[in-house]
Amino acid sequence: MKFAKLFLFSTILLSVMHCAELFQSKDKNDNTDALYAILLNAGCTVTDVSAPSSGRKIDFTVCRGDANAALAASGFSSSSVSLSGGLVGTGSSSTVYTNASSLSSLGGDKKASIEIVYLLSQGDSSIDAILPSTTNLSGPGFHILPTTVNKIASNGTNSALATLSRTWSSTVSSEKTLCLEVHQESGNAHVFGWESACAVASRGTYQFEEDGVAADFGGDRIGLRINKATIKSITIYSSNIGTAGSFQ
Questions:
Q1: What distance in Å separates the CA atoms of residue 41 and residue 61, rounded to the nearest whole number?
Q2: How many other CB atoms are there within 10 angstroms of residue 114's CB atom?
């Protein structure tokens, strides 16, 4: 009987020590986030899509639990964001990026493709969609404003695209959908997209684009900077959407 009690006490002590190491070790933060997510039943709805290409849609409007735990369980790292009818950011430090490679093609030059459904809450709201992105949110992409979309180049600045079919009316407080894609071509970026869902986009004709954009292709993630805006959902595609342009 004494031996059984001693064995039980030793087992409990070892378990407590193991848990203490788990929560104190800086190298095991990802494990801690995953454990919290399980305990809190946290996460966001993730579904497979097949049109116009295969991909995964993450619906931020139905996330469960703490924001960081829910995003971690859904494959993202996050900073200064909250959940309220979607993924809400308040400034330049409100960011998320995928924890794994999110390229739309494997091998050769890099390509990335997403659909984003969002809402800008004020006249000075903006969203940076960086694809592909480093974990420091550097790379080519799009700077989304209430009345237009700009390109983001290698130095992090944004400017007007060479081709923009039209300037849309202000979308403040209105839900909007964009289909966005970036290809690495001859060391630079071909950035282009559509003012619509990807499933209904004319894949061979782009509504906004620019080729030869100077860009740093050091990353392989999808990154978002959310300034006074809400991301309703994002779909990350595993193959190309656009079919026009110089493909390599």
A1: 16
A2: 25
Cα–Cα dist 96/133, whole Å: 11
Judge whether 211 and 246 are in contact, CB under 8 Å: yes
Separation between Cα atoms, residue 151 and residue 99, nearest integer Å: 24
Q: Which two tokens stand for residue 216?
A: 């740093």
Whole-angstrom distance, CA of residue 96 vs CA of residue 80: 9
pLDDT per 10-residue tile (average), the chain, 248 residues: 41 41 43 52 94 96 94 97 97 97 86 98 97 96 96 92 88 97 93 96 95 94 98 96 72
Q: CA 7, CA 10: separation in Å to the nearest integer?
A: 5
Segment (H or E) for 32: helix 29-40
Which amino acid would we find at residue 111? K
pLDDT of residue 98: 98
Rounded-to-integer distance, Cα 15 and Cα 20, Å: 9
**Tokens found for residue 15:** 């378990």
- Token representation of residue 180: 């966005």
CA–CA distance, 117 with 220 (Å, rounded to integer): 21
Q: 10 Å Cβ neighbour count for 74?
A: 22
- What does the pLDDT read at residue 167? 81
Find residue 24's DSSP bridge partners: none
pLDDT at 34: 52
CA end-to-end distance (rounded Å), the chain: 73
